[in-house]
Design goal:
Elements: E1 9-13, H1 26-38, E2 43-46, H2 58-72, E3 78-81, H3 87-96, E4 104-108, H4 117-130, E5 135-139, H5 141-144, H6 150-159, E6 164-169, H7 174-183, E7 189-192, H8 198-203, E8 208-211, H9 218-229, H10 233-251, H11 257-265, H12 282-297
Parallel strand pairs: 1-2, 1-8, 2-3, 3-4, 4-5, 5-6, 6-7
Helix pairs in contact: 1-2, 3-4, 4-6, 6-7, 9-10, 10-12, 11-12
């Protein structure tokens, strides 16, 4: 098992670059992985929400993971998304997955069918029982329609020490976050799933962020998170408020439409998404362009 401390700091929920024909651009994906590492991120997350994973074929998913693992070259841990709402299918997927070079799995709460908390517990228990690498729970009720309650997270953390290693918390409920932090077992990580509240979560005792904005501004985000974890909150706040207008802008018309617009402005990816997602409006693109210019001029 990879020590949980390796998932501390700045993780990046990586986008999937597509070319103008709508095909996965594996070279740009590999280049992006290398760029993120060179700019100080602590680990990479492949096939999360930001990757437009529901629109990728099984073959594309496999190639995306391979590309990132090879580009990373073992320099930082790699976490791969492995979640859904059919427990049996996920268990079989984890059993058959090539996890060479993979250091953890990110597993989202079951969506649409809205299980009870006991159902949540049994679902993640089944995944933990077959996973050869640590599992990070992903709680994002705004997308899934179901919340992993703090009591359920803590039950899983205590019952599967080292295997269920962390929770990516994107409920936006700081009371829930603090309940988990207060009673978590030693070594269990609480990671922000929202860029906008990563700093207050760290102040409450959290362990970092799995970031979207870091796709476009990895150096600024990594420096901010590192400063906060070191207790240098004056520096962290200054960087947080520099990034904050862009963070709000990139999520206004959905993720990853906003961050892909910012990345195109930097010359890193084409501004191409797969339906049902579409690029941001012209008005928002112009705002992102202005904010990007300010961020780069302020350095």
């Amino acid at each position: 098992m990879v020590p949980q401390k390796h998932f501390r700091g700045t993780g990046v929920a990586m986008v999937t670059p597509f070319n103008r024909n709508g095909e996965v651009d594996l070279q740009k994906l590999a280049d992006h992985a290398d760029r993120l590492i060179r700019n100080g991120v602590n680990y990479l997350v492949v096939l999360g929400t930001t990757a437009e994973t529901p629109t990728l074929s099984a073959g594309e998913k496999k190639e995306a993971v391979r590309s990132v693992v090879e580009a990373g070259g073992g320099r930082v841990p790699v976490i791969v998304g492995a979640g859904g709402n059919d427990t049996r299918a996920i268990v079989e997927s984890v059993r058959s997955m090539d996890l060479s070079g993979v250091d953890g799995l990110l597993s989202v709460a079951p969506y649409y069918n809205k299980p009870t908390q006991e159902g949540m517990y049994q679902h993640f228990s089944a995944i933990a029982a077959v996973s050869p690498v640590p599992v990070v729970l992903y709680n994002v009720p705004g997308r899934t329609g179901s919340n992993i309650a703090s009591g359920t997270v803590l039950r899983l953390a205590h019952d599967f020490p080292g295997t269920i290693a962390a929770v990516k918390e994107a409920s936006g409920d700081l009371n829930q976050v603090m309940e988990i932090i207060q009673d978590r077992p030693e070594g269990f990580l609480v990671i922000s799933g929202d860029d906008s509240i990563a700093l207050p979560m760290i102040a409450a005792g959290g362990d970092g962020v799995i970031s979207v904005i870091a796709n476009a501004y990895p150096d600024l985000c990594s420096t901010m998170i590192a400063a906060a974890l070191e207790g240098a909150f004056d520096k962290a706040r200054e960087l947080q408020y520099r990034l904050f207008p862009m963070v709000k802008a990139i999520f206004r018309e959905g993720n990853p439409a906003g961050v892909k617009a910012a990345m195109e402005l930097r010359g890193w990816v084409d501004n191409v998404l797969r339906l049902p997602l579409v690029p941001v409006s012209d008005a928002l693109y112009a705002e992102i362009r202005l904010l990007d210019r300010r961020l780069r001029e302020d350095r």
